[in-house]
């Protein structure tokens, strides 16, 4: 699946999965722009930077800010990159830095409005603003074929299994998987369906990818990994690169008759 001559935009491209998607697109021949509030490359991108130094550019953009989104697209043009015809909406918060665990992961009755707004905006408002600008520039530049991939989650299809976090409550942490993340990821699937119907006549396909839990190594509590893995049919969490081929499929012409769909890759989590 060759993407030579194509330009892609990946929001959240510095993150665990986003950086994998950037790498995948670059190795398939695409030029890639990254929108992220972070500016430090993870090891996934640092390695590829050594021999693909001109294949991707990072733009520091807060995707919940209209002017910054427009400025990011202007930056793509100013770097001599073509108008993106591939967009991966991968940005979004799970929890908010600087807030207490009780505010974010405590009982629903204590969940803060500030956290709700931050999480919902980072997923849904951000995807809306970036997609809107993508459509505007796609049309104004006379493009005929495009692909948008919205990254959802198993928790956008089913409720979190709060029993998987019982071990934390037993050790004194009043922890629950937060509500806003589930709502945001479910919203990404609804957004996908609406955008697919609107984009069809323009030649823009829009699909959602639903990944399962991904093992981030030392960043994850070993007890959580154990609880998660025994709930999946394949008996393990995903590796960060388990979704790369699916992203390449959705971005390329191999999925040319696929739009409005939700592709679930979760080790069987939602099939039970």
Automatic annotation (TrEMBL):
Superkingdom of origin: Bacteria
Cited InterPro entries: NAD(P)-bd_dom_sf, SDR_fam
Coiled-coil residue spans: none
Protein name per Swiss-Prot or TrEMBL: Short-chain dehydrogenase
UniProt similarity note: Belongs to the short-chain dehydrogenases/reductases (SDR) family.
PANTHER family: 3-OXOACYL-[ACYL-CARRIER-PROTEIN] REDUCTASE, SHORT-CHAIN DEHYDROGENASES/REDUCTASES FAMILY MEMBER
Organism this protein belongs to: Candidatus Yanofskybacteria bacterium RIFCSPHIGHO2_02_FULL_43_22
GO MF assignments: oxidoreductase activity, acting on the CH-OH group of donors, NAD or NADP as acceptor
Matches recorded under Pfam families: adh_short_C2
Signal peptide coordinates: none
Keywords, sorted A to Z: Oxidoreductase
């Amino acid at each position: 699946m060759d993407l030579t001559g194509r330009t892609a935009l990946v929001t959240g491209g510095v993150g665990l999965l986003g950086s994998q998607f950037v790498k995948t697109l670059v190795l398939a021949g695409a030029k890639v722009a990254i929108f992220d509030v972070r500016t430090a490359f993870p090891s996934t991108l640092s390695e590829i930077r050594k021999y693909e130094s001109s294949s991707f550019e990072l733009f520091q953009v807060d995707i919940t800010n209209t002017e910054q989104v427009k400025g990011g697209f202007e930056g793509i043009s100013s770097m001599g990159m073509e108008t993106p015809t591939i967009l991966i909406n991968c940005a979004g918060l799970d929890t908010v830095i600087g807030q207490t665990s009780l505010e974010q992961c405590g009982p629903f009755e204590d969940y803060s409005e500030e956290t709700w707004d931050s999480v919902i905006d980072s997923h849904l408002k951000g995807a809306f603003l970036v997609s809107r600008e993508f459509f505007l520039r796609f049309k104004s530049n006379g493009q005929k074929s495009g692909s948008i991939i919205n990254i959802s989650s198993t928790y956008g299809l089913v409720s979190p299994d709060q029993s998987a976090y019982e071990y934390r409550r037993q050790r004194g942490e009043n922890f629950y998987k937060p509500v806003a993340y589930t709502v945001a990821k479910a919203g990404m699937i609804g957004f996908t369906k609406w955008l697919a119907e609107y984009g069809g006549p323009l030649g823009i396909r829009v699909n959602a990818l639903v990944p399962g839990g991904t093992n981030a190594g030392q960043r994850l509590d070993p007890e959580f990994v154990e609880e998660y893995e025994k709930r999946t049919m394949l008996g393990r969490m995903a590796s960060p690169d388990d979704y790369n081929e699916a992203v390449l499929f959705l971005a390329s012409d191999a999925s040319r008759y696929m739009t409005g769909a939700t592709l679930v890759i979760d080790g069987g989590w939602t099939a039970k």
